[in-house]
């Protein structure tokens, strides 16, 4: 076999082994999307109940809470970037980080300092590579976020929110994540987490039941146990945690969906490459055969000519 | 007779949903018993057990750790950080 043919054969072999990897990753991602969506949906009853309760307290009692009051001046804002741990997900992390940078620029232009918190190795690497200071980062949770992870992040954020500005405290908290709309559509977006703007329950529960929409019209007069302040004190941190959890879950579903799409494209590209190389290898083989034939015919001619001359 | 529409949810899943005649839960002030027609309440749930007497006279016990309880129009929601059927 000629050298050219060997090169093509080798390329075909390596491309088809890559193709197997891509295909496997595509299938894994596809099965994980379903799981991520189920997790996201099963967390939504809790999120809906919390949102409804928070809206009820916020709407009818005149309780001022530190988490809902707008600060007079904002000097420092925290940004929580929810990114992936692993790559192989196409433009997923690039799009997310672009959104985060946009928010950073916006905050800076308003004269605010930005304190970064990151979830996922990719986001962490992006900022450490650019010598940007990260307050705190969490890794290894982006694919399977649990309520405990959300609570841990919520506690860290609340702690810096409660700290004084002089001691690295922040006055606002934003969260940047990728919202899962469908398996082919996921949009990076940012939201302000604190001070709290109470939003509708069905906006949080992506695709969840929207029954809360119809009965959130009027809240009854609640009796608070033990007091409105105590209820709010206990509700608000949970509400934050649940917002963080739903962002984490939505991000993980988006991550898997992007990975599936990217791996699907990679598999198709590998197929194309294999086809191209097979064609080239065939051409090389035929060229070689043609050359051998020419040589044989040429040799036979030469022999015949020399024997005829005798 | 009116029944209570009970929904017990944990942070990551729905734990129990159904109709009940009576719900007893533990709040930070002590135990609270809820019968159909109870006034709207929003309470902080202390760690402990909630007992639900269902329409078929079964008693369901739920361990609920931290969270809140809301009652309105015969709808009871117990939302706990962690909840488990006992």
UniProtKB/TrEMBL annotation, chain A:
Coiled coil: none annotated. InterPro entries: ATP_synth_F1_ATPase_gsu (IPR035968), ATP_synth_F1_gsu (IPR000131), ATP_synth_F1_gsu_CS (IPR023632). It comes from the Bacteria. CDD domains: F1-ATPase_gamma. GO terms for biological process: proton motive force-driven plasma membrane ATP synthesis. It is found in: Cell membrane; Membrane. It is a peripheral membrane protein. One of its GO terms (cellular component) is proton-transporting ATP synthase complex. Keywords: ATP synthesis, Cell membrane, CF(1), Hydrogen ion transport, Ion transport, Membrane, Transport. F-type ATPases have 2 components, CF(1) - the catalytic core - and CF(0) - the membrane proton channel. CF(1) has five subunits: alpha(3), beta(3), gamma(1), delta(1), epsilon(1). CF(0) has three main subunits: a, b and c. Produces ATP from ADP in the presence of a proton gradient across the membrane. The gamma chain is believed to be important in regulating ATPase activity and the flow of protons through the CF(0) complex. PANTHER family: ATP SYNTHASE GAMMA CHAIN, ATP SYNTHASE SUBUNIT GAMMA, MITOCHONDRIAL. This is ATP synthase gamma chain. It comes from Brevibacterium sandarakinum. The gene is atpG.
Automatic annotation (TrEMBL), chain B:
Transmembrane segments: none annotated. It is found in: Cell membrane. Its main location: membrane. CDD domains: F1-ATPase_delta. Signal peptide: none annotated. Pfam families: ATP-synt_DE_N. Residues 4-83 form the ATP synthase F1 complex delta/epsilon subunit N-terminal domain. InterPro entries: ATP_synth_F1_dsu/esu, ATP_synth_F1_dsu/esu_N, ATPsynth_dsu/esu_N. Keywords: ATP synthesis, CF(1), Ion transport, Membrane, Transport. It is a peripheral membrane protein. Belongs to the ATPase epsilon chain family. F-type ATPases have 2 components, CF(1) - the catalytic core - and CF(0) - the membrane proton channel. CF(1) has five subunits: alpha(3), beta(3), gamma(1), delta(1), epsilon(1). CF(0) has three main subunits: a, b and c. This is ATP synthase F1 complex delta/epsilon subunit N-terminal domain-containing protein. It comes from Brevibacterium picturae.
């Amino acid at each position: 076999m000629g050298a050219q043919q060997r090169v093509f054969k080798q390329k075909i072999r390596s491309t088809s082994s890559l193709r197997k990897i891509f295909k496997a990753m595509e299938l894994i991602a596809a099965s994980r999307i379903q799981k991520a969506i189920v997790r996201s949906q099963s967390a939504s009853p809790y999120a809906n109940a919390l949102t409804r309760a928070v809206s009820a307290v916020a709407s009818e009692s005149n309780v001022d809470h530190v988490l809902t009051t707008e600060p007079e001046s904002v000097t420092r804002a925290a940004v929580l970037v929810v990114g992936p741990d692993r790559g192989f997900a196409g433009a997923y992390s690039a799009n997310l980080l672009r959104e985060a940078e946009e928010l950073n620029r916006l905050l800076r232009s308003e004269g605010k300092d930005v304190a970064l918190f990151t979830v996922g190795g990719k986001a962490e690497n992006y900022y450490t590579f650019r010598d940007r200071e990260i307050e705190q980062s969490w890794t290894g949770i982006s694919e399977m976020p649990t309520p405990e992870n959300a609570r841990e992040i919520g506690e860290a954020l609340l702690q810096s929110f409660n700290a004084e500005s002089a001691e690295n405290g922040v006055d606002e908290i934003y969260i940047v994540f990728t919202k899962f709309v469908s398996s082919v559509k996921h949009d990076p977006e940012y939201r302000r987490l604190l001070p709290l703007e109470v939003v509708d329950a069905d906006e949080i529960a992506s695709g969840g039941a929207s029954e809360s929409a119809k009965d959130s019209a009027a809240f009854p007069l609640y009796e608070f146990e033990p007091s409105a302040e105590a209820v709010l004190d206990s509700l608000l941190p949970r509400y934050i945690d649940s917002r963080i959890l739903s962002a984490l879950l939505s991000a993980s579903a988006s991550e898997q969906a992007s990975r599936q799409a990217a791996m699907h494209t990679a598999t198709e590209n590998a197929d194309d490459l294999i086809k191209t190389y097979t064609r080239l290898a065939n051409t090389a083989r035929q060229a070689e055969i043609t050359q051998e034939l020419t040589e044989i015919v040429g040799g036979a001619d030469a022999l015949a000519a020399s024997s005829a001359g005798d | 007779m009116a029944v209570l529409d009970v929904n017990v949810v944990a942070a990551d899943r729905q734990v129990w949903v159904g109709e009940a005649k009576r719900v007893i839960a533990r709040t930070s002030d002590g135990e609270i018993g809820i019968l159909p027609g109870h006034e709207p309440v929003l309470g902080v749930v202390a760690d402990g057990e909630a007992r639900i007497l269902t329409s078929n006279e079964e008693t369901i016990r739920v361990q609920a750790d931290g969270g809140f309880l809301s009652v309105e129009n015969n709808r009871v929601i117990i939302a706990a950080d962690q909840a488990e059927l006992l």
